[in-house]
Structure formats: C-alpha cells, structure tokens
Amino acid sequence: MSLADSRRTIDTIWRMESAKLIAGLTRMVRDVGLAEDLAHDALVVALERWPETGIPDKPGAWLMTTAKRRAIDYLRRNKLRDRKYEELSRNIDLYTEEDNERAAAEGEVGDDLLRLIFMTCHPKLSQEARVALTLRLLCGLTTEEIARSFLAAEATVAQRIVRAKKTLSAEKVPFEVPEGEDLRERMSSVLEVIYLMFNEGYSATAGDRWTRPLLCQEALRLGRVLAEIVPDEPEAHGLVALLEIQSSRLKARIGPEGEPILLMDQNRAQWDRLLIRRGLAALERCRKLGRPLGPYALQAAIAACHAQAPAAADTDWVRIAALYEALSRITPSPIVELNKAVAISMAFGPEFALQIVDELISVPALQDYHLFPSVRGDLLAKLGRHKEAQAEFERAASMTRNARERELMQNRAAECEAQAAIGGD
After folding, report:
1. Would you say 42 and 60 are in contact if contact means Cβ atoms under 8 Å apart?
2. Which of 285, 307, 329 is the endpoint of a domain?
3. DSSP annotation of 265
4. Coil, helix or strand for 223?
5. CB of 71 within 8 A of CB of 89?
6. pLDDT tens figures, 301-354
7. What DSSP designation does 260 have?
8. How far apart are CA 157 and CA 166, in angstroms?
9. Of 111, 140, 174, at which residue does a domain stop?
C-alpha cells in the first residue's frame, strides 16, 4: 500500500472511530478537551507507525489502547488525582481487541456516546456552542465544515468550540445521562445534535463519498435509545421516525460507481420497507401523545409522503407543500423556505417556486449555501432558461466541498449547456 493510500485508509478509520475513542477517554479522564487531545495523540502515532507496520486487524482497539496508555502517562506525569490514578490502574484495564468486541456487543461504547452528547449539551453552554462542540466530537467535522452547516463564520465557530471545552472543564460537568428537569432542559439540544449528526452522514459536507452510512446508523441508534429514555417526548419519536424513513433510502441514493442518485430517480424497490414501517410506527406514537407536531415530526410526515408513494409520480406534493408551510411557521428559516419552494414547484409549477427563491437571493445565510443555486438552476432548467440554469449549476459546483456532489452539479451544467445549444437559448 502506498503512503497516500495508507493515509486515506487511516483518515477513514479515524472518521469511523474518533467519536467512540473520545467518548471512552472522556469517561476515563472526565475532561472532554483532554480526551480529544489524547485521541489525536493516538492518531499521530498511527500516522507514524501504520504506513510501515500495516493497518492492525482491529484499528479501533489499537487506537483505544494507545490513547488510554497516553492518558495514564499523563495522569502519572502530572501527579493529578493520585487516588484516581491508583483506581484506574486497579480497575480499568487497557482495551484489548477482545475487550473492544465485548464492549460493542454490550452497548458500553454506545452508552458513552450518549453520555458525551448530554455532557456537551449542558445548559452552561449556549445552544450554538453545544451543537458545534458535539458535531466536532461525534462527527469529526472540521470547524470549517461545522461553520458551513451553521451558515456561520469559521472563526466564530472555532471560538465557540474552544470556549465550550474550557467551560465544561471549569464547571466539572459530569459525564452522565441526567434525570428529571436536567434531562428535559437539554433535550432540545440533544435532539438537534443527533439530527445534524444524521444529516452529515446522509449528505457528507466534504470528501469523496456522498454519504457516510455508519454515521447515519449511529445517529439512528442513539435516537432510538433516547426515545426509550423519554417515551413521553413527542419530538424524540418524531426524530426517530424521520431518521428511520430517511435511512430506508440510503442504498438507493448511491449508484454502482458511488454517484449520487436523486430522490425522483431512485429505484423504490431498493428502499428498506422494514425501516419505513418502523418510521411510520414511530410517527404514529408521536401523534398518539396528543400534542401538535413539532419540527422533527413534521419533517417525518414529509418523509412519510415520499415513502408511501409507490412511484415518484404518485407523490402528494400538495400535502408536502402544506407540511413545509406548517414547518416554516414554527421554525422559520431560509432553508425551510427553499425546501418549500421545491415542493411548490412540484405541486403548482416552477414559475411560482422561482418567485419564492428569487426573494431569497439577498438573504445573507444563503450566500455560501451551495443548494441555493442548485435549486434555482433546477427551476430555471424546467422553465427552459438553460443558459441561466447552467450558470447556477456551475456556481453550485464551485461552492460544494463534496466531490460527488460537485460532479453531479457539473453534469447538470453540461446538460443545460447542451440543451441551450439545441434550443438556441
């Protein structure tokens, strides 16, 4: 294996294992900033050794063992919490490959991930800081990628993350799933974090792959666990419903060469019917609680419209447009308006939708959002304005950091160029 191939493999392993690594280390050292540093120390060692020795059979266990040794060395060297160190030496063995398998089977690492989410969603932190820090730790996103998902400045997000880690350390926030009022106080942030974690897996911000299925699976698993912890919280069931239904489409979203396949072009026979049934059941549990549908439940209802349509042509776009209108009233945002415009285009025609989109042109939050020119390009193409559509798709391609999505936008631009040449547009 070449050095470049080895580095790419290590990067993939890191993306898969880093959240579990940081969660396990946080349980050990009770400091999320220190845990992240120790995890990166283990990564540096791997980058130095693995190109020469080869990738271990169980790289996650190797990284955990290396990081835990560094943690114990750190505690010993700085003479911190001598009593704690003695306890660690007696009671916490280093992870072996067998230990890692057993922990995974028993759900131990998963529990640590949920505790980590609740820890980083502590009310001492602002809502924005909670979400940014958790995306950093659980999804392995860079500050630049998080800034793009927030539609915010990179420097602002970086400052939030640094301040958040310092606050958690200074306040000695416990590494646990809280109870009672403390749990309810953090619920909205925890739901948002799991939602954004899934979204990053569903449409990766950057890289050579359009999706990160393992991240979607982990977000769905955490959502299911959370819904069991708070069975009377409608939005927990709404979120699970949304993630179940969206997960059902993962295999159909990727072609044989890894290329993206958009919703209307997907082979619906490949959709996972079991996940759809689970999602619809979760949505029904949410409705039975008798409260108005919240943002996650409304998005789940939209996803259900797609899931229940036997073919793309059977989709109830009028209902979807109405659901987006309801969503825009309880959580108004330019992204919701953009999605509503797509639904209106399908229900009532692209002319009406383009009017809505053009009203959003000057919205600051959409200036660097690549899906805005993509949607506008699609509407222009449907109206036969192919040269204008080509320019929008080219702009979208220049803005995205995902290689697969860039190829998709470039292909759409080329199609519009060809149509313009044929039609004299």
Report:
1. no
2. 307
3. G
4. helix
5. no
6. 999 999 999 999 999 999 999 999 999 999 999 999 999 999 999 999 999 999
7. B
8. 14
9. 174
